[in-house]
Amino acid sequence: MTEGATRHPETTSGRRGSDFAVLSREVGEQGLLRRRRGHYAVRIAVTLFLLLAAWTAFVLIGPSWWQMVTAAVLGLLFTQTAFIGHDAGHGQIAEGERANRAIGWIHGDLLVGLAYGWWVDKHDRHHAHPNHEGRDPDIAGAALAFSREQALLRRRGPGRWLARSQAWLFFPMLLLEAFHLHFASVAGVVRRTDLPLRTRMAEATLLAVHFCAYLAVVLATLTPLQALCFVLVNQGVFGLYMGCSFAPNHKGMPVVAEGTKTGFLRRQVLTSRNIRGGVVVDLLLGGLNYQIEHHLFPSMPRPNLRRVQPLVRAACARFGLEYHETGFFRSYAEVLRHLHRVGGPLRPELEY
C-alpha cells in the first residue's frame, strides 16, 4: 500500500479464522482485553472536575470578553468528554451494556449534546467496513469527496466548488462540525424508530436538558453579543478539535470500492493510519492515534492500546500487511494531499 493509494485491491481472503485468531489469542493471553476500572474512574473524575471548574470560572468571571478564553477551554474539555463517551460506546469501560450506556448518555447527551445511541449505530457501521464505499457512513453523503468517483458526481452547484477546493476548506469546515453533530444527534433520536420509545425519550430529554441549560447559563451571564461570540468560539473549538482527532484515522487511506470483498484483518489494517507521538499525543487524540489496534480490538480499554501495539505490528509483518504509522503533523499533510488530489478532476485549469 502506498501513501497515495485510493483504492483497496480486491481480496477474497478467508483467513480471519487463522491470521486474526493467532493475534487474538496472543492478546487474550496477555490480559489486554480486561477492563481498566481504576484508570477510567480517575479519568472520568478528572474530566468532570475540570468541566465543573471551567463552568464555575465562567460564572465567576461574568460578562467579559475574557470569556472567549473560557469558551475555548470548554471546547477542548467537551472533546475530552466525548472521548469517554466514545470508549463507553465500544464497551471499554464497564462489563455490562447498561453501565456503558449510562456513561455514554452522561458524557454524550447530557454534557456535550451528542446523541449516544445515534453515534454508536453510525460508528459501529463504520468499524465494520471502514472506508468502504456504500457501507461506511463516514464517507457516504459527506460534504467532502473521498474518492475521484465521488468527486466526479459533483459536476454542478456548490458541491462541485466544495470538492475542487476541499483541501483548502477542510480546517475551516471543521469549525462547523459541532453544529453538524448536534443537528445530526437530534435528527438521529427522532428518526431511530427501531429503538424502544423509552430509550429515545431518555436521550431526547438529556439532549434537551443540555441545550436548555447551556443556553440559559450563557445568556444569563453574558451580554447578547458576548453570548453569540461565546457559542461560536466554544462550538468552533469543539468541532475543530473533534474533527482533527478523527480525521487522520482513515482519510487519505485506501478506499474500498463498492462490492469488493476483503478479509477482516486486511480491511481493518490497510484502511487505518496510526500516529506517533507518545503520551502527549495519546492524551490529545484520546487514544485514536492507535487506530489500527483500535479497529482490530474496539473493546480494548484505551490505556492498553499502547501495550498491544508491538503484537499488532509483529503480526502485520508476519502476514505481509503494511502497518502505516506516521508523525502528528505529517498525518494531516497526508490527509490534505489526498483531498486535493481527489478534487483534481474538478479543477479544469489543470490536466489529469
What order do the helices and strands come in, and which of them pair?
Layout lengths: L18 H11 L7 H25 L5 H23 L7 H16 L3 H13 L19 H5 L4 H8 L1 H9 L2 H15 L5 H25 L2 H27 L13 H7 L3 E2 L2 H7 L6 H6 L8 H15 L5 E2 L1 H15 L10
Helix pairs in contact: 1-15, 2-3, 3-4, 3-11, 4-10, 5-9, 8-11, 8-16, 9-11
Descriptive notes:
The protein is mostly helical and 352 residues long. The protein has one domain (15-346). The protein contains 16 helices and 2 strands. The protein has helices spanning 19-29, 37-61, 67-89, 97-112, 116-128, 148-152, 157-164, 166-174, 177-191, 197-221, 224-250, 264-270, 278-284, 291-296, 305-319, 328-342; strands spanning 274-275, 325-326. A two-stranded parallel sheet has the order 1-2. The longest helix has 27 residues, at 224-250. The protein is globular, with a radius of gyration of 21 Å. It holds the Pfam family FA_desaturase. This is Fatty acid desaturase. Residues 63-326 form the Fatty acid desaturase domain.
Helix content: 55-70%
Enumerate the strands of the largest sheet in spatial order, edge to edge or round the barrel.
1-2
Question: What composes the largest sheet?
Answer: 2 strands, parallel
User: How far apart, in Å, are the first and last alpha carbons?
Assistant: 22 Å
Oligomer: single chain
Number of strands: 2
Number of helices: 16
Content-based structural category: mainly alpha
Q: Which residue ranges are poorly predicted, with pLDDT under 50 across at least 5 consecutive positions?
A: 1-17
Provide the succession of SSEs.
HHHHHHHHHHHHEHHHEH
Mean pLDDT: 91
Tally of domains: 1
Outline: globular
The percent range for strand residues is: under 5%
**Rg from Cα:** 21 Å
Transmembrane segments: 40-58, 167-190
Protein name: Fatty acid desaturase
InterPro entries: FA_desaturase_dom, Fatty_acid_desaturase
Domain Fatty acid desaturase: 63-326
